[in-house]
Amino acid sequence: ANRAAGCIPNAHYSWLEHDPTYRDRFLKAQQLNRDALIDAARAHARVVSAVAALSPRDALVVRASFNLGDCDDAPRTLTAIGADLGVCRERVRQVQALALRRLRPALSAFA
User: Fold this and answer.
1) What is the distance between the alpha carbons of residues 100 and 68, in angstroms, rounded to a whole number?
2) Is the pTM for the entire model greater than 0.90?
């Protein structure tokens, strides 16, 4: 009768309260999301730790290429990284490839 446009009476949602599996599914989904966030945080910490073990130049290239720094900037281009280091884009690509090869064994232990 005098319902606001777009409002649905609570009676239409009563099935949610009476469905015994709904609450379980909802709680399980929340736990999965929480677990995924924890796993992502642990993986990020492992990557940051492995990158810290690289040489300063290699670490700088990896951090800048994949935005692993403390800022929210977008990943930087090879040309921009090369300008900071005083080398060409191709040399930055080579350093990046070598650094990633060095990281692979350290990170494969966690897979």
Assistant:
1) 14
2) no
